[in-house]
Amino acid sequence: MMTERRDNDLDKWLTGAENTGLKSLRSLARGLRQDFDAVTAGLTLEWSSGKVEGNVNRVKRIKRDGYERAGFDLLRRQILLAD
Asked: Ranges for the Transposase IS204/IS1001/IS1096/IS1165 DDE domain (predicted)?
């Protein structure tokens, strides 16, 4: 459904997830229904924030690695000089 951008299957999948015995899966389905338009757009549109999210996660990891052990200058160097 996600790789082939088939938003038509989303409602069927959510209904199946809501009827399952798994509490966490029902909770996920309920959350996806609350923002159904955004989820549908994410499944159908070509645009993605994946690269931005990847950079944010990389910066957070670098920050965690140096938490309370390094100053701003080292953090800045790691971000700017990272591969």
From this structure: 7-67
The model carries a pTM of: 0.51
Residue 40 near residue 7, CB atoms below 8 Å: yes
26-43 b/e with 16+ CB inside 10 Å = b?
eeebeebeeeeeebeebb
Host H or E run for residue 71: none
- Indicate whether 2 pLDDT > 80: no
One-letter identity of residue 31 = G
Residue 38 has pLDDT above 80, yes or no: yes
